[in-house]
């Protein structure tokens, strides 16, 4: 009987691992790390920190959340070269990675402006296409960042 339960547990773990490793999955590793980072940031508010469960969560996961924030790629890892375009949602900058010296286009969008606009669905569709398309004619999304008030990719 224990063998059956163990095989079922292994099967379930394999499914979870596949979803975590699949960049198209809503539960991919970047999404999970984003969730931990966002939850930690949202809980780290004076009014919310007073709740006992929130305080316990912050005490338990503060170091882990800090490691996520410090170890993940961030906009500070790039040096700004120049603005190469402006649009309805934000601007596109030419940037260079400080370590590899590789040059990228970085799109920066204001979250508040996106929320206000009724056509913000186009923003999400564009991001999805850039993240998943495999075409020489479509710019590929390499990285994306979430900061408090800005979406960047």
TrEMBL record:
Coiled-coil regions, chain positions: none
Keyword field contains ATP-binding: yes
GO cellular component, one term: cytoskeleton
PROSITE patterns: PROTEIN_KINASE_ATP (PS00107), PROTEIN_KINASE_DOM (PS50011)
Single Gene Ontology MF annotation: ATP binding
Pfam families reported for this sequence: Pkinase (PF00069)
GO biological process, alphabetically ordered: actomyosin structure organization; cortical actin cytoskeleton organization; embryonic morphogenesis; mitotic cytokinesis; regulation of cell junction assembly; Rho protein signal transduction
Keyword Nucleotide-binding: yes
Residue sites binding ATP per the record: 107
Domain Protein kinase: 78-153
Gene3D superfamilies, per the entry: Phosphorylase Kinase, domain 1 (3.30.200.20)
Keywords tagged on the record: ATP-binding, Nucleotide-binding
UniProt-recorded name of the protein: Protein kinase domain-containing protein
């Amino acid at each position: 009987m224990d063998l059956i339960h163990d095989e079922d547990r292994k099967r379930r773990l394999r499914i979870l691992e596949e979803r975590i490793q699949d960049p198209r999955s809503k539960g991919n590793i970047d999404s999970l790390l984003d969730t931990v980072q966002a939850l930690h940031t949202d809980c780290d508010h004076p009014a919310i920190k007073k709740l006992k469960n929130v305080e316990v969560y912050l005490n338990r996961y503060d170091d882990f959340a800090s490691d996520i924030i410090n170890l993940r790629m961030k906009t500070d890892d790039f040096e700004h070269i120049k603005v190469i375009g402006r649009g309805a949602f934000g601007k596109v900058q030419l940037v260079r990675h400080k370590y590899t010296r590789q040059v990228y286009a970085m799109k920066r969008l204001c979250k508040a402006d996106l929320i206000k606009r009724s056509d913000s669905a186009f923003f999400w569709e564009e991001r999805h296409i850039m993240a998943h398309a495999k075409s020489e004619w479509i710019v590929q999304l390499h990285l994306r960042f979430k900061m408090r008030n800005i979406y960047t990719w």
